[in-house]
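User: Sequence recovery, please. Input:
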């Protein structure tokens, strides 16, 4: 009762449920399950041990008026769960990439939307009813809460957590909590970092760096120069500096007290 194009490439122990649809230029890795009523369209590669739940649509053409039918792709890593009625669109040539990517061990919850040319890292979570506009970047271990949405070209830094029903219109730096309207810095993602093996000392140093950026009366450039001069080189220090210096949209502000 499923349709699988004869040219589709299926790995070992792939499960295709009833009424599922698998198109021609599709590659599905070993142990992956395409459950009943799910659709996987042209130019999609799915890795090993993934599950695409009922009603999900992976690889549909982008909802972008610049798209002119060119070949573009969706590439999904290993152990990714794409829950009910989630949608993931192909890339476009206009972006210069032409690929929408989702990394390993990522969870796309029900009714979430990933638009063209997004790049989602490993261990990310996109909570139900959230949506990413085209060319959004979610770095490894980042989370976007339910009913939240991103403007195109925004970035969410590694290990950051965006709360529910938020509008992401500027870049969210690494290791932080972001919430409120308009979206603002609410502190360091202490609980998440400790769960992932950061030490108390490392978390406190990250907090001190963000105090310099947001609360010490310096502008962003001054704060970054101060951090570089006064904190020893480390992966997390250099990640913060590199992310903010490369931001094209600017970073979210601190909370505005009313």
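Assistant: Recovered sequence (258 residues):
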């Amino acid at each position: 009762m499923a349709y699988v194009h004869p040219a589709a490439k299926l790995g070992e122990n792939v499960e295709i449920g009833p009424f599922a649809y698998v198109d021609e230029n599709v590659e599905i890795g070993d142990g992956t399950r395409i459950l009943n009523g799910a659709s996987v369209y042209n130019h999609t590669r799915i890795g090993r041990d993934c599950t695409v739940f009922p009603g999900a649509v992976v690889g549909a053409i982008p909802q972008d008026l610049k798209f002119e039918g060119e070949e573009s792709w969706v590439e999904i890593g290993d152990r990714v769960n794409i829950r009910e009625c989630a949608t993931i669109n192909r890339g476009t040539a206009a972006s210069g990439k032409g690929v929408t990517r989702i990394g390993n061990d990522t969870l796309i919850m029900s009714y979430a939307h990933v638009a063209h040319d997004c790049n989602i890292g490993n261990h990310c979570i996109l909570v139900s009813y959230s949506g990413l506009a085209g060319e959004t970047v979610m770095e490894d271990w980042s989370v976007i809460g339910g009913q939240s949405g991103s403007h195109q070209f925004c970035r969410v830094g590694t290990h950051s957590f965006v709360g529910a029903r938020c509008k992401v219109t500027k870049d969210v730096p690494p290791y932080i909590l972001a919430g409120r309207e308009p979206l603002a810095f609410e502190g360091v993602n202490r609980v998440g970092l400790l769960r992932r093996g950061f030490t108390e000392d490392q978390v406190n140093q990250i907090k001190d760096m963000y105090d310099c950026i947001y609360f010490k009366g310096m502008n962003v450039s001054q704060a970054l120069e101060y951090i570089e001069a006064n904190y020893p080189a480390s992966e997390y220090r250099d990640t913060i500096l590199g992310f903010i210096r490369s931001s094209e949209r600017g970073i979210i502000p601190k909370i505005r007290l009313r």
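Residues 3-135 form a domain with the UDP N-Acetylglucosamine Acyltransferase; domain 1 fold (CATH 2.160.10.10).
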